[in-house]
Amino acid sequence: MLHYLFKRERGPLLAAILLVALAVPGAAFAVESKPKQVTVVTTESKFTPNKLTFRRGIPYRLHIENRGKEMHEFNAADLFKSSKISNPAVLNPDKTELVLKPGEAKDLSFIPKKAGHFRLVCPDHDWAGMTGEITVE
Ligand SMILES: [Cu+2]
Question: For residue 125, how far is its CA from the centre of ligand 1 (angstroms)?
Fold first, then answer.
């Protein structure tokens, strides 16, 4: 009976110990590396917000939503060039912009590496004022 109990209880106990061992350092790691979410909405013909500030060395997840009726581009070529991008496939082949169809949303995971001011523009609608400013501190 005792033997049976021991055998029966050992599994869950070991599992619990293993879970604690994995969860504690894992939780600390997750807090440190969790990207900051920043959302930008595109419509005709503006970015909202159109002034963005990032900090060097911090991971971000930039969520771009096109709520307009036209195609829009989030072009920040110099920012992308000077950042570490984890999912470059979400960018266009030149790695200069995110292209969004009406109703589409895309996420870019990146870490800014260089401080400065960077130009944000929708090349199709810059004439209509669809521009913005990105600052990396
Ligand atoms: Cu546009």
Answer: 5
C-alpha 45 – ligand 1 centre gap (Å): 6
| pTM, 2 dp | 0.77
Give 4's contacts (C-beta < 8 A, 6+ positions apart): none
Domain residue spans in the chain?
1-34, 36-136
DSSP H helical ranges for the chain: 2-33, 77-81
Q: Name the residue with higher pLDDT: 82 or 3.
A: 82
CATH level 3 topology of 36-136: Immunoglobulin-like (2.60.40)
